[in-house]
């Protein structure tokens, strides 16, 4: 079986401007590599609909197995990651979303403000898209739930 490939996309004006380090993106890449997944260099994009849409479209169109979009899941004016992501997901994984929320709430009540979504771009195949808030804690919570299920997700793709 070929090695799975991942792309981490970070939607953050502050990281793009060099005002804040990309700790959440680095954490996601570290966890993915620990699961023997080949991670492309992170893609940092401005906040908002179009930049996230372009980065997500590129990742999906190139056959990336796992696409992680960090940031833009809150309720701010430029937090449009869930709206963009919904356009690509055909099989939404509501159960995983709930598990991630419950895990996050164990650490912080702020987890309830995140609108992260998870799903597959195709029924029985495609890319797994994971969105989460832009903190290392949110990334750890999300992958703490999702990473142990990677084999099951990819088995649904016939692997």
Shape: globular
Number of helices: 7
The CATH level-2 architecture is identified as: 3-Layer(aba) Sandwich
Q: Report on the biggest sheet.
A: 7 strands, mixed
CATH topology title: Molybdenum Cofactor Biosythetic Enzyme, Chain A
Give structural notes.
It is a single chain. With 159 residues, the chain is of the alpha/beta class. The protein has a single domain, classed as MoaB/Mog-like domain (Molybdenum Cofactor Biosythetic Enzyme, Chain A, 3-Layer(aba) Sandwich). 42% of the residues lie in helices and 20% in strands. Strands 1, 2, 3, 4, 5, 6 and 7 form a seven-stranded mixed sheet that branches. β6 and β7 form a beta hairpin. α2 (23-34) runs parallel beside α6 (136-146) and α5 (94-107) packs across α6. This is Molybdopterin biosynthesis protein MoeB. It holds the Pfam family MoCF_biosynth. Keywords: Molybdenum cofactor biosynthesis. Residues 7-153 form the MoaB/Mog domain.
Describe the structure using short key phrases.
single chain; 159 residues; alpha/beta; Molybdenum Cofactor Biosythetic Enzyme, Chain A; 7-stranded mixed beta sheet; 42% helix; globular; MoaB/Mog-like_dom_sf; MPT_Adenylyltrnsfr/MoaC-Rel
């Amino acid at each position: 079986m070929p090695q799975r490939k991942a792309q981490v996309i970070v939607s953050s004006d502050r990281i793009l401007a060099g005002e804040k380090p990309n700790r959440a993106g680095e954490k996601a890449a570290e966890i993915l590599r620990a699961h023997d997944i080949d991670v492309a260099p992170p893609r940092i994009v401005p906040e908002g609909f179009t930049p996230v849409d372009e980065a997500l479209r590129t990742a999906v169109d190139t056959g990336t197995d796992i696409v992680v979009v960090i940031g833009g899941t809150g309720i701010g004016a430029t937090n449009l990651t869930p709206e963009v992501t919904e356009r690509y997901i055909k099989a939404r994984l509501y159960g995983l979303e709930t598990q991630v929320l419950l895990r996050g709430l164990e650490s912080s009540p702020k987890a309830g403000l995140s609108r992260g979504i998870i799903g597959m771009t195709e029924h029985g195949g495609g890319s797994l898209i994971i969105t989460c808030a832009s903190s290392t804690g949110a990334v750890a919570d999300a992958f703490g739930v999702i990473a142990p299920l990677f084999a099951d997700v990819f088995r649904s793709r016939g692997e």
